[in-house]
What we know:
The chain has helices spanning about 1-10, 15-40, 45-60, 70-90, 95-105, 120-130, 130-140, 150-155, 160-180. By secondary structure, it is an all-alpha fold. Belongs to the sigma-70 factor family. ECF subfamily. It comes from Flavobacterium silvisoli.
Amino acid sequence: MQEEKDFIKDLLNPKTQNQAFQKLLHDYQRPLYYHIRSIVLNHDDADDVLQNTFVKVFQYLKDFKGDSKLFSWMYRIATNESITFINQKAKRNGTTSEALQSKIVDNLKADVFFDGNEIQLKLQKAIALLPEKQQLVFKMRYYQEIKYEDMSEILGTSVGALKASYHHAAKKIEDYMKNN
């Protein structure tokens, strides 16, 4: 934990800031991109949200209290930015975020950055039908293998509630996969 505190000091120090931020990008750009992409689904949208996420991280780093890990704090920002992005895009298109997600899944086949097969497309459709919180929990656990304890810090939800959400999501997905 001391190492992380020193790293944060380097990020805040004008003399070491550029080098420290390059390390931050190097270490977290890829995992944050995949986390964001799992929520917004579209590559270009994920790039935009990732950029917004790093701007916010840089902008608010001085306010980071260290109550959670830097990783968890950045994932929380990425999650919130992703949800905000989806909601704003849905509003601009005069639809709900659920309908937008469903439309994006339908368009995945044409996305050159999506290399999944029919089963993976079906899985994405099943996930898109879940309530927002269950989607997040399922994607974070299933795709990114994030521990419940870390997820709890990121989402501000108890471990027990997260386990229950994952269980319900997995059951709904299993039912969808069997019946469609």
